[in-house]
Amino acid sequence: MEAPPTPPSPPPPPPPPPPPPTPITSDLATLQAVKEELRQQHPDWYPDFRDTFGNQLTEKLLPAELAQLSASQLGLPASLVSSDPDRLRRELRALAFARSYLMAQAGDVEGLSQVSDDLAHFWNDRLEGKLIPLPPIDPNDPVPWVRAINQLHSRQTSGLDSKYGKQARYRSFVHAVKDWTDGRWRALRAAAKKVLNGQHGGADHAKARELIEGIDSAPNNAPRLWRKEKASDVAARLGTSSQQLFDHLKGKVGQELTQDIVSTSAGSGIWHGDFVWEIEPGAQAIHAYPISWHPTEREWITAGRFQVLKVDRVSAAGGVRVLVRQTGVFYD
Known about the structure:
This protein starts with 27 loop residues before the first helix and ends with a strand. The protein folds into 3 domains: 28-73 and 86-126, no CATH class; 144-217, no CATH class; 225-328, Toxin ADP-ribosyltransferase, Chain A, domain 1, CATH 3.90.176. Strands 1, 2, 3, 4, 5 and 6 form a 6-stranded mixed beta sheet that branches. It is 43% helix and 14% strand. The longest helix has 29 residues, at 168-196. The chain contains 14 helices and 6 strands.
């Protein structure tokens, strides 16, 4: 005689909801201490916050009992405030910065996003991606906006912005190109090196990733490109002297050189220097001109491996011109 079938086990109970975020302190002394701690440990963070958001988030981040404090209640000397009328507003902004940091440390992504989506991403970058997972990259169409921007011959990007503007990756890409063209290329290049080595790129991680993916996914449609720099800088990078640079590169004809992310121009007369790189048309590069802060430079951002095709002297003083062809980028 068979035993009756065992009844199915009841489904496991649903997991408990996550606990609500810990209330963020509005204690003045605590915020002042956090502000000072951040100033010492991360001196770049507050200037970045100030330059990104100005005063627009202060009232959203500070409760009324803090936002309405007087200078004396904040411990600011009257003589200081009288000589610097903006000092009170700057102090409140610094407290708002400290409070937003505490929100980020507590994982209050919803609260940060309610203040500003850009604020949530600001802290996500500085906390090494611990708040917001990076959106996945579609292997079949990893960076669709790069193909579109490479075809633009004007600075009218309204079509791109309306199509992709709500996507976090597109916003990171735009910020990356703007920052790169406005002089932050060293920091972004350093972050990109970390990303390529499997590390987190720090505050510029998302931007660096978009530069890498953008170059790697760009069509082979860049025009002839040039880059001018000092021959002495190139010689130091290649481990030779300025006097031996021409002969050193002559021996590299037919071989490949690697280049980190770098600026080039579609104009041969842009920038200055006695060393000229000339890149054959058809390289993979990001067309920065439509969103660059300096459109007259006609900039394209590229990287990868380049085969040396020809080396010429361009002056008796040691100037050199090198013709190269891009043979690959990051993941080829």
